[in-house]
Structures
1.
Amino acid sequence: MKDAKRREAAERIRALTEDLARHARLYYHEDAPEISDAEYDRRFQELQALEASFPDLARPDSPTRRVGVPPAAGFRPVRHVVPMLSLDNAMDEAQMRAWLERAERQLDRQGPLALVAEPKLDGAAVELVYEDGAFVVGATRGDGQIGEDVSANLRQVLALPLALAGRPEGRVSVRGEVVLPLRAFRRLNARRAARGLEPFANPRNAAAGALRMLHEVDRERLRSLAFCAYGLGEGIPRHVRTQWGILEQLRAWGLDTSPGAERVAGLEEALAWYHALLGRRAGLPVEIDGAVFKVDDLALQRDLGELARVPRWAVAFKFPPHQEHTRVLDIFPSVGRTGALTPVAKLVPVQVGGVTVSNASLHNQDEIERKDVRIGDTVIVQRAGDVIPQIVGVVKALRPPGTQPWRLPEHCPVCESPVVREEGGAVTRCPNRACPAKLKNRLLHLASRGALDVDGLGEKLVDQLLDTGLVKELPDLFELRAETLAALPRMGEKSAANLVEALARAKETTLPRLLVALGIPEVGPRVAELLAARFGDLDPLLAADAAELEQIEGVGPVIAKKVADFFADERHRHEISRLRELGVRWTATAPRTSAAREGALADKSFVLTGTLSTLSRTEATERIEAAGGKVTGTVSKKTDYVVAGEAAGSKLAKAQELGVAVIDEAELLELLAG
């Protein structure tokens, strides 16, 4: 039973990771999202919960570990000196309470924590960099590390000052949100309708789309945008000690900040402010989708630190999602890369918060049966910001007579092979390894940035290659010729030549990238690096069995079995042999010894309490972990050291009670020095 649950969890984690990555790309790059914010948040939190329950199954490419998506082609990349992180979400009062209690526990403080409360603006996040008070560059968030240079378009935004009042010396990076006020949104749509143009779906997409125009700049739209600053990445003046002080400084420099921001203390005041904001939401001049709460004291922010993609000192408390009614026209199965059949509901198009919704995933047969969704049903769909929602439920009173329960087909809708359902699992699959739908998704996976990064090999072209029979298995890609490709509809000689060149470049790769490109179940960049580091080259890995693979730290029994089964399959060995024959080469990796992973603090457990004088908690944690130790939040008999700083709290008393060694910051630094 436990193995079945792990298999189901691993499959769901994989599906959610790939699904969320696709929707993030649609949201950030194409400004054409297909699911609602509420649905994205639900899937994201489901993934977080699964990863918390099965941490060894978490994938290195999980969206829980990153912010946004990489910058799009055509824009000059801009590296954020200080990463632009996302925000963790609280979807209800219980989650808001849990966030605040975690912060208070980590800080080891008594009494209500001082917070800054701001409306969560529904726009596009940007960073403005000023040198000696003059605007020099503006960039989108991008993936949090590197954004897109949209300076030229930002200079058209009349609400954005090109010089800061008082001309502060040095470099200042201002973070904020570009929004399209509702009044301007309605005015622009009226003018577009008068010219026979399609109206903008919603203010957020209109704002983000204007910023990311490369050639045909819409000056009227850009000049209608507003900018609200909410923080500083660089250049915080020394006298500013609080988040509220940052907002005051931003206003002193001539920048607008979020309307209605206030200081609150503790949970009860935060909840009261949130409900008051929700009550006046409809009367605000801009769209908002929740409230943001930040720890006010900047020193405490540093102590709380950040996770991979979100700060621990801030949270977005989202508003309840909008809901609409529509009708199910049809339900059809979609086949994914691993052969999983996903039922999809085709809906009567409905406007949900300004976005037209026409499709919604029903996930699996169990979900359909649980909600009893049938063709012809009137259903409730919900969203919280943009686009295609989840089906919340069925309005049974409106069900027409004669409807029948819907079931997944017994045969794959693409290759007609009999489908199978995993024992104890919820996923129904097409087992045919030659299924065109599976091959299509494997080809797209091979071409992705984390694999062989084949520029120009997109979904439409892959469809043509499969439909014409030019590609029947993975290695066939590397036999394509420019003259053959040029004969395809809408291809052209230049595009054909570019693709052949991209495929030639992709032949020279690394072992980890090759392992990702092969599409081995559960093997993303992180696991690929672990396998490459252990075996050094492909042939020793081909000869390894599951027991040997399971000995690698970070590779659990599920991943080990899937890797071993993949390489035991003669079809996959044939693919690898053909790839070699066609000139695909990879650089070997020097095997990593166990000694290289040992550090001065290997296997030692630490607890931090109080404020350190030279290190923030994040810095101390990172240095301890880099030296092989681990940092926990609770003192126990298994704790090796408690590091006590100024104003240490109850953890210090607990350590003394249990007889755990207590050291100060200087002693910690000595341990780190080895």
2.
Amino acid sequence: MNPLRQARVKRVAAALCALGALLAGCAGTGGGPKAPASAAALPVFQRTDTLWLERVSFGIDSESVAELHHLGRQRYLERQLEAPDAPLPAPVAQELAALEVAHADPVRWLAEVGAEYKSINAMPDGTAKVEARKALNEHGNKLANEAIRSELLRAIYSPSQLQEEMVWFWLNHFSVHQRKATLRWLVADYADRAIRRHALGHFKDLVLATLEHPAMLEYLDNNRNAAGHVNENYARELMELHTLGVGAGYTQQDVQQLARVLTGSGVVNAGNPPRLKAEWQALYRRDGAFEFNPARHDFGTKTLLGHTIQGRGFAEVDEAVSLIVREPACARFISLKIATYFVADTPPRALVERMALTFSRTDGDIAAVLREMFLAPEFNAALGGKFKDPMRFVISAVRFAYDGRTITNTRPLVNWLNGLGEAPFGRTTPDGYPLTEASWASSGQMSRRFEIARAIGSGNAALFDAEDGGAAAATGFPQLSNRLYFEAAEPFLAAHTRDALAHASSQQEWNTFLLASPDFNYE
């Protein structure tokens, strides 16, 4: 074990030990049950296979382990990269289809919400006005909660695990916050139409899809960006956070010029399209709730990153995005961020450079960049040293503990992610959640993780209750000492984890110790 990895594991184990949790000696020497004996005649599975699969998915389950056995790493990876959107298990598909957000209609919803807000604002002050505003906000909250529920269930159960990982990665990279303006009505459509469709495609298409979505336009104020009233907020974040990164050589003038390019790109207003001059009518563009209004566009000539862009309408936006994403700085920035998420907090420079070269050579083919990374020797060498962020910890715990059983209540997961500080659509700033261990491994964080492990391990997490209350449909107690454990986890546990499991006084405590162990927190 390398010294850095060893020091990290010691810090995590020490935090858990302080809770009376894991290390040998912390649990005492009393008569707890030993871990059950290993099952016989299991397929040969290497520790690196388990860790590799942990990173190419949201965590192991029996189905993914069997598929990796059958296909091997390269064919498994190709199936994940080339066959996204595999059908969800029937119970999950039915659950998602019943949600209101499964039939999202941003154009209609924005029109209705705008009309309701206008009607409420016109009401005299009093109880009726307060109740009307409360009802409208509760409907928005319901839609946002359904969007989160959909993302969590897909992360747990989708056979297209790598696609779902990249959806989460890009939702974080192109982050929006549900509490701004009308975003609660938009985030489900944003995840499905702007992110999921392009998560494994070409980066330019992904940038344009987010640029043309009303959630991003409202969140970063480009719906207010018009000729004569230029708003630079989105242009700045598009360059700094989404494509080029800090210190990439662009200037404040480049930000201003990009903001001019983006004038007129906004959100459809209720009612008919705007009345336009004859020469502008052919330049008007509308796609769903996105609108490019030439009457609000600055048609002057711009200079962006040293290139002249002639004023001609939305075609300028396509040209500007093409210029930006083909910059070497963009290839390096995106490759570094992907490698930081999947490989190591400080990924090997040589690997990042090869990923960047692949990005440039393939015109931003995300799948090609991932293929370069997952099959690299540096990736294999880094296995076991990446600390799971809260999302990966929570989802991997549920995948491992219930191994395909369909939970019926995602509210505990939402509460856990809120408590750990990484709720979907919950980042208040546009920079997205951190990707490194330092942000997620404090003693307070580890204490919360232990309590989550206890809730799952004891079967008291209410994951099989009805989503909106009511009696549990099935027992929630997981049996973790099963074939999956013996095949893909037990042979590779560290000595201190084995000792802790041997000192467990009950199956519930054994489950808790396993899910809270450093072995489970690192991949």
3.
Amino acid sequence: MREYWVLSKLQLSSLFGINKILHMKNSPDKKQAKRSVYGLLAMVLALGYVSVFYSLTLASAFAQIGMLPTLLGMMAFATTMLIFMFSVFETKGVLFGFGDYDIVMSWPVGVRTVAASRVTSMYAYNFIYAALLLIPAGVIYAGMAHPEWWYYPLFILMTLLIPALPTIIGAMLGTVLTVATAKMKKRNIVNILGQMALVLAIMFFSFRMNTSITDPSSIQGSANAMQALVERAYPPAAWFQSALTNGSVFGVIGMFMLFAASISLLLLFIGKNFVAINSRIKSTPTGGTFVMRAQVRSGKVRALFRNELKRYFSSSLYVVNTAFGYVMLLAAGVFCLVRPGLIAEAFSIPELSAARSVIPFVLGWIVSMGATTASAISMEGKTLWIVKSMPVSARDWLTGKLMVSLALAVPAIFIGCTMVAAGTGADAMEWFWMYVVPLSYAVAFGVFGLWLNIRMPKLDWQGEAEVVKQSASVMVCVFAGMGAGAVPAVIAGLTQSPWVQPGTVIVMLMLALWMWHSLVKSGERKLLQLN
């Protein structure tokens, strides 16, 4: 048991950079670790703000019709879906295939102890998402419903239990996907396609849930339909709701049994197959006989761009986490083309007529989610010394990384925005801004990601999930994109001013120029300081 606690403590403290802050004596490295923690705190505050906003909105609507408890069930279901998706993507790098596997397995510690500590680390990270979504909802519900005293300790307990089932299902699915593709020569492509299919399936399921409301013109009908869908789609969310609102003993016992069964099954499965799965993942599939072909000569920037592009597509987690925004953009375009009548009907409603001016900023926000640069420097990891030893300038190195982000963004923007503009019946000026605004976001957030990542790098990662999903620079970039899309959208929707779009584009490009100048000016020095 002592070994388990020591391993869990080591993994949890390294997860958020706490070890560096507490034990590092090197001042620059300690400051770098502190900046990463500050970035994560900013992410927590931003996600907490979004959670409070949606919880307040739902609580106000449900309270009017006497269905306030539905808030807890809805947020429990949303938490489950989020944790499930993250668990699938975090399996490789957190449970299996982590960088220090050989070192950890050489310690005098049992295999099941190592496996249990990795499950604890994954569960702890998922609990953070659960707390950020459920605590605001629980506090708002308590403030409006004034429940009995037992609600408060029970809420804390139920919040601890809710991540169990989505964690095990996501981990199992992620394990199957990882093991099935481990020996394939094109395993990264298969992994990317499989994870993209999962994301699209979740989006489609969520869309079907939203469109299956029986009486959308009635708040009462919508709330009843939501409650029925939650109970039918995910009964534990209904148990969570009934335990907290009605004091249901069945709900509490059901959550306890679900937690115990899920964690026990996951530990049994992973403990039994831990070494075999890691060996399969770490073994490299043999390729064909090497044949020398014609060598290609190119300039430094082009060569760096091609190398960065290969590195990008070599990581399925990296691709899925960044390309998700472009998938959303293309899905929005397809929806607009398939359902143009529904779009036209929505715009004919007086309250929604102002939404046309908001569309470019929504598209810009979606594009900002696809910036690959927020983790591009951190992905160098322990191979950073190779970059430092190459006869290339920091400007060329950064340009190659920026080009990858733009090479992905520009085609997606032209295809997706063309479909959105055609499906919404946009006029000539609206067509223009539906291209220009998202393109300015792509440039600005491509540069912003580099500017941020070189100041908050995470080069000592043991798994790609630490960089792609858990690093401070990625979180700050994502939530900055939300703010950059929401602020001008609100202004455009309220004022209907024709100057919001050009003003936003000018601001985005000016910020991009300033950040790029800062990168070029201090790039060589900051590159040499990275270690």
